[in-house]
Amino acid sequence: MALTETDARFTHGNIFRHVAIMSLTSSLGIAAIFAVDLIDVLFISMLGQAALVAAAGYAGVVMFFASAMNIGLSVAAGALVARGLGAGDTRLAAEHATNAALVAAGFGILVPVLVLPNVHVLLGLIGAEGTEAALAARYLWIILPTTAVSGLSMTAVAVLRAHGNARDAVTPALLGALVNGVADPILIFALGLGLDGAAMATVLARVTTAAAALWLAQQQHRAFCRPGLACLRRDLGDALGIALPAMLAAVATPVGTAFVTREMARYGSDAMAGMAVINRLMPFVSAVVLALSGALGPIIAQNFGARRMDRVLDTFHEGLRFLVIYVLGAAALLFVLRAPVADLFDATGKMRDLLYLFMGPLAIAMVFNGAIMVCNAAFNNLGHPGYSTMLNWGRHTLGTWPFAVGFGMIWGPEGVLLGQAIGGAVFAAIGIWLALRVIAEPCRDPLIRAHYTCPDQRMQVVSHRNYR
Predict the structure, then answer these.
(1) Which of 227, 258, 259 is CA-nearest to residue 65?
(2) DSSP code of residue 190
């Protein structure tokens, strides 16, 4: 197929504009996805039973593991498709997209088969007991069987982003959130299904999102082609080479969340209810931060495929600049809205204290998680997904558990959140240092450098001086 200018649109034009448009539009999709969870918790909280909110919190941690698998596979799909487009081969890009979707469907079937028979054991590991554990398990039995549906939707959205189609990439998630918002009150209150109704509404939202994403990708870009065993075998190694490290990196996030959740559970249902709201609220308000890895990935991958390392480096810098601007604005807004939000969830006592802390000074800590997302985009799309795995696991183990436990012993549940933020700062600094080395790598070797467009001479001198 002939390559058009819009197929590899990120290899030219203003980089900050590309970063801003992709990040903001991608964040709308992520915000819509997490709005589904937030809407569930909001309506569940209206039932006036803290145990139901806590059960949703425990179930959310387990669901995050399944979502992490799909996130990793979508990273592989986006990276491979964008590289194909950057190199000028749209047929290869379509083959990559098809094979990534097949792998996502396979993993989506495998996850519930392995998880559901052991769901009570997993819930016990994160501190769920008694009625809360039973309610969380029932919630998961309804939602987890649709993991394959969620995986296909994430893959299709990643393919749309790889084509630079920011508008259509956000549409499926918005439709899913709309369906969930309409179905929740009907199923939870009108039909009296309670927590089960919230789970069913999420299933309806996932089906809507997947159908819309697959249709848009094929309709707008002919993004998928007829599957073939030979092509699947060819791509399987490359896809898993990116997906497995990315999946492991994504799984690190719920591991860290599980550590924090277990520590928070020591302080009772009130603190756990606050944590459940924060876990749903944080991804929603930091959607732009969470979108950075997926938003920057296509820009980096297309330019890497076109061998434009100068634009790759500029993308990294502009991504960090955009991050700081967003976090400062979001932190100020959160501080202003913290009382109305706490009132919305009827938060009192320790639950209210934790929400005030999260929506106060700790909001600035979003910049550390965002910096790690920018670094992940560089690692996953420049051939070093293993670095993303190491950085994320380091951040969510050594950078989470010791800090959360240590500060929790001093300041209680507030200390758990504070320790988590401080650990993030340490690993964000490590990630930026390593990412700059990876970006400079092709331009350090004279033989390899001849095939790339590298940064200007001043940047080359800086890179040589700092990274040799």
Answers:
(1) 258
(2) I
Maximum alpha-carbon separation in the chain: 69
Cα(80)–Cα(87) distance, integer angstroms: 11
- Rounded CA separation 288/421 (Å): 18
Among 276, 322, 294, which residue's Cα sits nearest to residue 173?
294
DSSP H helices, 163-228, are: 166-185, 194-221
DSSP code at position 400: T
Q: Residue 70: CB partners within 8 Å, gap ≥ 6?
A: 104, 107, 108, 147, 150, 151, 154, 155
For residue 138, the tally of other CB atoms under 10 A from its CB is 15
pTM of the complete model: 0.73
Q: What angle do CA 249, 392, 321 make, to 5 degrees?
A: 110
Tokens read off for 185: 């009150």
Q: For 393-433, what is each residue's pLDDT tens digit?
A: 999 889 888 888 888 888 888 888 888 889 999 999 999 99
Q: What is the pLDDT of residue 463?
A: 41
Domain spans in the chain, listed from the N-terminal domain onward:
12-467
Q: How many CB atoms lie within 10 A of CB 448?
A: 13
> Can you tell me the distance from the alpha carbon of 53 to that of 55, in angstroms, rounded to the nearest whole number?
5
What are the φ and ψ backbone dihedral angles of 197, each rounded to 5 degrees?
A: -65, -35
Instruction: Please classify residue 453 by burial: count the beta carbons closer than 10 Å to its beta carbon, then call 0-12 exposed, 13-18 middle and 19+ buried.
Output: middle
